[in-house]
Fold:
Amino acid sequence: MATSSPAAQAVTAGDSIGITPQTLHIGAEISGVDLSQPLTEGLRRQINDALLQWKVIFFRDQDLDHAGHVALARQFGQPTIGHAVFGHEDGFPEVYSIAKNRTANSHRQERLATPWVGWHTDITAAVNPPKAAILRGVTIPPYGGDTMWTNLAVAYDALSAPIKALADGLRTIHAFAPPPNASAVEAYDESVRRRTLKSEHPMVTVHPETGERLLFLSPSFVKSIVGLSPRESQTILEMLWEHLVRPEFTVRFKWNAGDIAMWDNRATAHLAPSDIYATDHDRQLYRVTLVGDIPHGVDGAPSRSLEGAPILSAEEEPAGG
Structure:
């Protein structure tokens, strides 16, 4: 008689998580797990299943340092270098500091205020954007500083049939570059010049695990639609970006020190808070991202690199990369 595989036997009576959805379409709080300890195969599978369903999941009151953060990430994939353009923490090449006044935010005052400004999927300028990210809260303001995520699968599903058909056949240029009208910010500009990233992605990608179609249109990185005039491109992009961040597709997370957010970078875009700049309160989080695959469109055609190398694991990344 056939016996169950070890993976099938991994979940025991005390080896399960609690899942509390936060909105109809995105976000769930996970309970019943200590992320400072190695996870069983059963727990890893349950957490990954929750991530695929809810796109971003939250864990409260976790006690992790940099080493524990990296160890957690390694249980779900290969950590990348902290940030492909802006570097990493000393001694921890996998960890990127999300500080209130980090270099990556140095041009934020130049942004044109629109409903989609600041929304992004991490590092889509690379040909293989990270598949997931794990963000850890350390210093949290007493109020303000919330992060938001939106569900790219639901956003695609909510499009009309003619717009879906149009989007399915389009490709877009994603690039890491300052805004066209930005004033010179030397630290930011030098980081971008040192490692330029530019890629062509399908406007609609297919999730490699769920098969969902995703409106893959990171507002902070998409520059144009291939083959369209500038006016056509901008008009279509603005319509779709506004759609992408409709409130009913989103979740907003109030951080506490020790909280962890894990999101599927293939299926979400997120928004860092801007309200914290109007206060004197500090805010410090740390992020680890996981190496991702090259996306594919609904026709099976992959993304292609126009400038820059793929994102590698932290071990493979050249020194100083």
